[in-house]
């Protein structure tokens, strides 16, 4: 069985992660309950005639995947696997609004064509002329992890030598309004917003795209290897420690083997207990958080994956993502844990590719 | 007729999201498809809907579209002669 190495990354987020070195320029937010992605100039990546029809998620996906492929020095992947929670919700809204506004008449094709969840994966493949395996997972907050699991198995079992994977989600005005109405998004009255010490329900909502090239070959520029992935649809708070302990044991690991644990704390006081429970298992381990930088969205864990990849490659844990101020000399084995509203739990183990 | 041409150019830019093109960049006799504005078959469908929605013109025979959508000049003449709103 082959090992699955991460050899290229590309990230578009609310921070300037696309054009700068790893977290060298960050802005902390405590006052906005919706954050929008920092959009690069897309003209370098997408022909103008195509840009005009593309929604934000498609453009973010194409640019982030282009960067990941370039880093991995790969022109054409064997497979493209995308994860998205909401898909191209902007064009879905346009299309549905047109149906209502025009009394089910005068429906135009453009927004319909790009309203499906697999538009991002499809457009990336069209741009690359990649006719290989192309799949999009729409599994809520484990959409990215499901894509990762599929890719890992394909690489390990030599069904593919290299796979482009990514998590992408975009915001859209009507959906944001609905999320505010049902308190998925924090209310204005709850300012200032904090991820570390949350005092209110809901999250700061956001968007972004993180893409990665996975290959069965270790290279000089490899970030890490993907050792293990686990997905669990629902858990009670008192079941988390058992879930993590069993997962680690299944891979011959103990909590003390973990050099850093990357947690998906999103500032939702209702569900923060899952992370509190996890932290007690790793009190002597450097703890990392990232959603104060990325905001929350269904594939925000792909931003966390990007953070973990960079910590391992750089062997440095930046202060801005350090939750308990502990540091280690070496970051060999990193565990990621994420959940959203008590559902869609995921665990990932990454290992330094150089060990 | 001049006002209709300007209105048509503006609507085409808006509907087709032609980001880098202004009304004054489109000449009345420029080809809309192919070498001119570079529109494609999806744009043709958008233009058919535009005629119906904005001017009450239903194109029953798609073959007519080729001549009607040749340029702003041909489109505006067709609209002026056939519009119902």
UniProtKB/TrEMBL annotation, chain A:
GO molecular function, one term: 3-oxoacyl-[acyl-carrier-protein] synthase activity
UniProt KW Transferase keyword: yes
InterPro entries, per database record: Beta-ketoacyl_synthase, Ketoacyl_synth_N, Thiolase-like
PANTHER family with a match to the protein in the record: 3-OXOACYL-[ACYL-CARRIER-PROTEIN] SYNTHASE, MITOCHONDRIAL, POLYKETIDE SYNTHASE-RELATED
Family annotation (Pfam families): ketoacyl-synt
Keyword vocabulary terms for this entry: Transferase
GO cellular component: cytosol
The protein, known as: 3-oxoacyl-(Acyl-carrier-protein) synthase
Domain Beta-ketoacyl synthase-like N-terminal: 46-218
TrEMBL record, chain B:
Protein name: Acyl carrier protein
Gene3D superfamilies hit by this protein: ACP-like
Keyword line: Phosphopantetheine, Phosphoprotein
Pfam short name (any one): PP-binding
UniProt lineage: Bacteria, Pseudomonadati, Bacteroidota, Flavobacteriia, Flavobacteriales
PROSITE patterns in the record: CARRIER, PHOSPHOPANTETHEINE
Keyword Membrane assigned: no
Domain named Carrier: residues: 1-83
